[in-house]
Amino acid sequence: MDAKLQAVRAALPALSRAVYLNNGTTGPLPAPAAEAMAAALQEELTGGRTGEAYFRRTFGLAQELRQLLAAVLDAGPDAIALTGSTTEGVNIALWSLDWQPGDEVVSANTEHPGVLFPLFSLRDRRGVTVRLADLLEPGQDVVAALERLITPRTRLVAISHVAWSTGELYPVEEIAAMCRAHRVLLLVDGAQAAGVVPLRLRECGADFYALPGQKWLLGPEGTGALYVRAERLPEVRNTFAGYVSAQAWHRSGFLPHPGARRFEYGLRHPVSLAGLLAAVRWLRDEVGLPWAMERSHALAARLRRHLQAIPGVRVITPERHAALVSFQIPGVRPEEAVRALEERGFWVRSIDLPPAVRASCGFYNTEEEIDGLAEAVADIARGRGQR
Ligand SMILES: Cc1ncc(COP(=O)(O)O)c(C=O)c1O
């Protein structure tokens, strides 16, 4: 194994437990993130959680994290709000708009509940019509499939950058151009892209982009961010409001912060902020994001190739993919396959729509691990797996 990969793996102790192929659910925590969290917790324990220095440090941590995420994702100044998850970001974005009964949203049946359920809430509470493109068959012309559902009442398209189910990488820039042409807003769920797909938020054309900290950015649970395009800020309203939302206030009102921070309302857990900050710094400075992204993609392509060569196995994930690879093993239910693979030391997960096994390839995986997974799948497919 080359020295760099060895060093990277040494900082991810969870890798010694099993072959970690479920980054798409939650990534392995890097040691520098765990150390930063331990130090922050110790500081709370012994230094107390009050006093000017404590609040300066805590607010400073939040600002450092907004700025780091903005730099890594090329979001521009003041365009990042800290959230607790992708789903929180999606909800904040959706509820920041003044919906009228009869307004329409276009999305897809491949979307995660983190997008679909907030849309269903909009439908049920505001009378918004939700139109879903059928993208279950991967490799379609996604732009055309979404555009077909746009009407003069459509106000927003909500779509993932990478579909959590099929693993398909959607052409966000082209979708954004189509949305602009129809004067429709674009909300992107970046849960399976942020940290693993090269991303320049300012250029990609999305109006809102929600992302998690705990998946490909390897931060702790309960962290995330929402990007809001600067031009949209005058049009949106505060979904939540509290002292962090304001740049100034008086007894009868407040002036929202000029940037996306207006969507934050209070302090986030400082220990978690310290963890995500350290994880992203480690990714940027020690691992190198371009190297990590290229490697994850190459490993996923390798896995796809191997799986496609196994008789009977159906690879769902199309050519245009990121780091997720979904597949079906004939005659074996996905949950059974996941169990059989776990018994052989591979951590993957099952998905429902379509029913399949999903492997997430991280930059820290070795080629041998990827080949080993394909061999285990071939073994299960031949009927020799433990059912
Ligand atoms: C595409 C997609 N969207 C949303 C989510 C939910 O993410 P979070 O737990 O950060 O809200 C996930 C993963 O769980 C996902 O894969």
Give a quick precis of the structure.
The chain is of the alpha/beta class.
Task: Give a description of the structure.
- This protein has 387 residues and is of the alpha/beta class.
- It has two domains: 3-29 and 288-381, Alpha-Beta Complex (Aspartate Aminotransferase, domain 1), CATH 3.90.1150.10; 33-284, 3-Layer(aba) Sandwich (Aspartate Aminotransferase, domain 2), CATH 3.40.640.10.
- Helices cover 40% and strands 17% of the residues.
- The protein contains twelve helices and 15 strands.
- It has helices at 3-10, 31-47, 52-72, 86-95, 113-126, 142-147, 172-181, 201-204, 270-287, 289-308, 334-343, 367-381; strands spanning 19-20, 80-83, 104-108, 129-133, 154-160, 185-189, 208-212, 224-228, 246-250, 253-256, 314-315, 324-328, 346-347, 349-351, 356-360.
- It has a seven-stranded mixed beta sheet with strand order 2-8-7-6-5-3-4, with helices on both faces. The chain has a four-stranded antiparallel beta sheet with strand order 11-12-15-14, covered by helices on one side. It has a two-stranded parallel sheet with strand order 1-13.
- Strand 3, helix 5 (113-126) and strand 4 form a beta-alpha-beta unit.
- Helix 3 (52-72) crosses helix 9 and helix 10 (289-308) packs parallel to helix 12 (367-381).
- The longest helix has 21 residues, at 52-72.
- The chain is globular, with a radius of gyration of 21 Å.
- The model has no long low-confidence stretch (mean pLDDT 96).
- The structure holds pyridoxal-5'-phosphate.
- Residues 85-87, 112, 114, 160, 164, 189, 191-192, 212, 224 line the site of pyridoxal-5'-phosphate (PLP).
- The site of pyridoxal-5'-phosphate has 12 residues, from helix 4.
